[in-house]
Structures are given as C-alpha cells and as structure tokens.
Amino acid sequence: MRLFIGESWHFMAAAGLILLVFISALKRSAGIPRALKALRLAAACLLAFLIIKPAAVFYRHSLEKPTLAILLDGSVSMQAPAEKSGAAGKYAVAAAWLKNYSAEAAAGTECYIFSDKLYRTDCSSPAAAGAAYFESDLERALSGLFEARRPGSAGPDRVWVLTDGLSAAARGPGRFPPALKAKVDILGVGDSRTPRGVLITDFSGPGFTIAHIPFGLKAEVKAAGWAGRQLELSLRDQDGTVIEKRTFSVRGNEELSISSFTLSAPSVGPRTYRLCAGAPGGACQAAKDLTVSVVREKLRVMYLAGRPSFEYAYLRDFLKSQSTIDLVSFVILRNPEDLPNVDERELSLIPFPVNEIFLRDIGHFDVFLMQDFDLRRFAPDPNYVLSLSDFVRKGGGLAVIGGPSAFGSGGYGTMPPLNDILPVEVSARPDFYPGHSAQAVPTSHPAAGDAGRREDAAFWRGAPPLSGANLFGPLKPGARAVFNYRTPQGSAEVFVAEKAFGKGRVIALSGGDTWRWKLGGGKEIKYAGLYGDFWSRILAYLDGTLDLEKVELEALPHGGFIRPFRLRVLNDNYVPPGEGEGVSIDATLEFNGKSSPVEFEPDGKGLYQAQVRPAGYGRHRLKARARSWKSFLGSDEAVFEVLKSGPDFVPSDEAGLVRTARENSWNYYRLKDAKPRNLLKTMPAARSVRTEVSRFDLGSSRSLMLFLAALFCAAWIYGRRRGLP
User: Fold this and answer.
1) Would 147 be classed as within a structural domain?
2) Which of 89, 121, 469, 623 has the most CB atoms less than 10 A away?
3) Is residue 658 part of a domain?
C-alpha cells in the first residue's frame, strides 16, 4: 500500500498553518479540561487531513510476459505453391506453422494479416480476411503496429514477419519505424532454392556518372552446388576488354558473393558493362549487362585559330559564356616566318606552344577545335598530326573549321594521318573561295538541331547566308552530311560533315562565318538562338553527349508485383539539372483505357524513383514527361506485363528479404527451418510489474467526514455540560 496526497503544496501549507494556529489557541486557553482539548485537537487534525485529500493505493506484484506481434503476409503471391513439387500454397503453409505455434507461456502474442493494411486475426486460426490482396505493404503494416497503441508506447518487444518477399521486400531501407530496429525476425515462406550453378542476383550502379571520375558498380552472385570450387567474376566494357577480375573460394553449398568494382568512363555517352561469372579460365556461366549514362561535369575544349577573325571572336565568346565548358584558346598573331629582327625576350607575343598543345597536353581535352589553321607552318614534324589522329582514335572529338589556310588551302590533303580521319575528300590544291555565298540546308542528322526547325524550309531560306567556303569533295565511306548548302545558282554542296574514327568523331565545316547567324538574331527574333543551338549540338555530338536522351525511363529489378522505375533527367546542356532549375515530373500509368497519376520522388541529382502499383493483370504503359522552368526536356515511356499467379511455383525472393533484413539490422530465417523455441530465446525476459488492485480516497470518505462531525458535536456537548461558553 502507498499513500498519495491529492492536493498541491498550497493546500498542505494552509492545513498545517490552520493546525498550528489551533494548537496555539488551545495552549493559551485556561480553564478548559484536558478531555475537551483532546476532542478539539482530534477534530482539527482530522480536518487538516481531509483538506489535503490523501489516498491509499493497494498494489499487487506480478511478472509480465514480453509482447510478440506475428505478421502473416496476405498478398496474392502467397497463394502460389510453397514448393516446386508441392500443391500447398505459401499462405496455407504459413498459417499451419502459425496455428501449431504455442507461446502463451513465454510471450503475450498478437497475430495479424497484412496486405493493403493490417488485419487482426486469431493466432490459432488465422482467417484469410484481407488475404489474396494484390500486393502487401510491409512498411505500412509495421507502422500500423504503433497506431493503435497509446502515445509513447514502445510497441511490441519482438515482431515475426512471415512472407515470401515478392512484394513485402520491395521497400527501400530506412522506411521502417526506427523503434523496430533489431527487433524483427523475417521468416521466408516457400522454397527459394535455385538450380545448381551460378546466378547473378544483382548488378547495379549509379544513375549518372561523370566522365573521368571514378564510380562504383555492385555485384551479387549466388553459387549453388559449388562448395570447394573457385568462382571468377570478370567485368568487361562494351568493347569486350576485361577491366577487372575477382576470384572467390566457395565454401558452402549455397553462397552469396558480394563484390564491388571501381572504374571510370573515358568519354561521355551511354556505356554498357558486362559482368561474367564462372569457373576461372572457363566459359561464362552467367552474365548480366548494365548501361550507365556518362555525363560531363565540364567539357574541356581546346580552340586553336590560325588568325584573328569574327568567327574566332564570336565562337570564343560563346564558349566562355557556357558554365559547363572549360576553354583554352590560342589565336596565331605571329607566324614563324614573321621575322621581328629583335631579341625574342623583347617581344610581347610568345612563340606558339606547338609541342605543348599537340604532344604533351592534348590528352587533357575532350574536344579540339581547329579553325583556319595551316599545320605546315607549325607542325612539319608528322608526330604532331599523328598525335591529333591518335587523340580522336582514343575517343576525342575534332572539329576542323574552314578558312583560307584550311583543308586544301592548308595542305591537309598532303598529310595522310589528318586526311584519313576527315569525313570528306580534300583537294590537293587551294580550295577556299571567299566570294562563295550559300544558304545552309539541314539534313536529318541529329546534330542538325530541332526536327521542327529542320523541316521548316521558310525558316532556313530566311536565315542569313554564309559567305566564303572551302569546297569539299565527295563524302568518304561511313561519313554523313549534317548540313548542306545551296548557292544562288542552285548548286548543292556539303557544308558540315561528320565521321566516326576509332572511338572518337570528326566534324568538318567548310566555312568559318557562322557568326552571321549571331548577327541575324539581332535583326529577327526567330533567329536569336540559331547560333548557340548550332554550336551546342556540334559540341554535344563531338563528345558523345548527343547520344544521351534527356529523359530516360528505366525499369529496376524487382522480385514482386510492385514495379520500381527510375527516371533520369538531363537539362538542355546535357548535365543533371540543379535544384534551381525547377524540374517537374508528370507521369501517368495507363491500363485498360484508364489513366492514373504516378508520383516520382527525387533520388539524387537528375534522378527520380517511383514504386508503381499495377492497376490489375495485363499490359501497363507508364509515361513520364519532364519539364524545367526553362523548357520542355522530353518524355519517355515503358510497357510492362502483370501476369496472374496460377498454380505454377514462384520461388520466394530470399535475396530481397536478406537484403532488407541486413539493411535494418533484422534477422532472416527460412520458415521451414525456423523453430519457435529458438526464436523465443531472443525475446526479453519477463518483467516484474506492479498492478494497482484498489484505491481508497480518504479525502472524500463519507465515514471520515461523519466522524469529523461527531468529534465537533462531542466537543460542543461536553463543553456545554461543563458550563463553558
């Protein structure tokens, strides 16, 4: 029993003060009998006692069992057979295991079925209320364990989740209630055994990676029946070149090997990597491909001009204005044949650093622009031209811009290493005609710009004409025209041509006066973006960025009915957009003629993810459109099928369940191997608790109040009988 005071200290102080005053008055009272003083003092003490409203509480000590919550997956995938050779469904197997479970002596047990939400059920007879729902939501189910409890409750001491993982494990880490960390045991339902051999269960990488910057790839390989053997993993690039090999010793009958590779991409564009698993030195027994979008953080450009010109001034200004371009430029103001007849140290113009540009530093750049440059003056050594050719062969981009000292007029036709990589035949004699006037005509080449603009003949007829050009010969095999031009006399020639050489690309521009398009934008607003669009796409083609789609929808691996998708978005500069660009995603899921919205959540710079819940069985079409506050970026779509679960055996997603358990510090067991008595050993011990049996509020007791009244009456009667006033 314990006594409690029901009022605040103010009442206790008042009661004590009244009692002291009363006692003091009794001491000063003369001629009052002791018996009367005792009656009055007893009444005063009882009154003070009632003022503070005391209560007496009676308790009983007992042992409280730890609480256990058991969650049974009720999704449609649980209706499939639990074993390949058996007819019993996974749900029936899990329900039978739960029915045979008896832990009343060890824990206070609550049983639930979870699918679209949490359903309370009887542990001894788990009815299928809410079962056979399309898919289950483990995150919502675990959160629901706390919703019905009082605020601040610690929740159950332990949670057992019985599931096949085909939909319940399709949630990412960190989404579950933190109060359940290290408190959950996942029991995998159904046979998950894989056939003997090697299976690549995961091969993943980043959504984007920056060229030349190291990035990582993750691989998970499952080997069954390989105990005592060696397993070799080899990573190859899209050319079949082996990047790295790893060898593992398999000790168990079923073993999951996890490995990571660090590599870098030498150029921009989509790059495909292949993971091969098998015996060392033997054939590839399992393989999986992964495509990574390589973007640029900065495009490194070397711009070399043979003489000052309007084209050099305008193009250099455009390149320097682009935040995504690192530019190094040189213009020749002093030729080798210019003899100043003074000491070199007295000149402000330094000699042209031909060795540094063509031999030492050329590999530091992604794109090389060479305009109106006569190589014969500065590079008589063939090593310079060979170095330029080798730069392109290894993946660099080269744009050769015409002028009075370029192509045939610059002797390019007499330099085999340079002539071989050009997309057009070059004359062996001077081929520049300064009075040549022509109108550009785009082709269907992607580097020619917007398709609508290409098809608008009136737009190009009104564009400023170009003046001065090197006359090209025919296109070489494998080369394509990007722009043609038409003269006032009606003749047509190639203005811009391109050709792949090795891993790189070469573009030849016959004229060096595209700056006239820049001036044309000042006269007529519709031509304002023509100059910048032209050079942006030329550069994007040279470094491979143009091969990237601005908006790309990718289906991620899944083990159940929920389909995860990732959306990769690039802005107009072909780099992942920043936070200030206001990117918005509009996505819909079409099924049976109806559309429903799909929400994509940010998952990194330029990356968005969505967990798509199918609307039923059959073909679905997911459409996604991306827009920034500047412009429409693009759209993409994906089609996927959802098939009904029939009597066919569907293995449980053991790898997904193991991954979920590992990421949340949980435990994973196979249901058929799990013994309740072993699982119960992880439960905390029974706690000693004190339970309130009864409560007696003395301050409001009628008996005490009557007794108080009786004391006052007795004191008054006794005083009157003794003749006291």
Assistant:
1) yes
2) 469
3) no
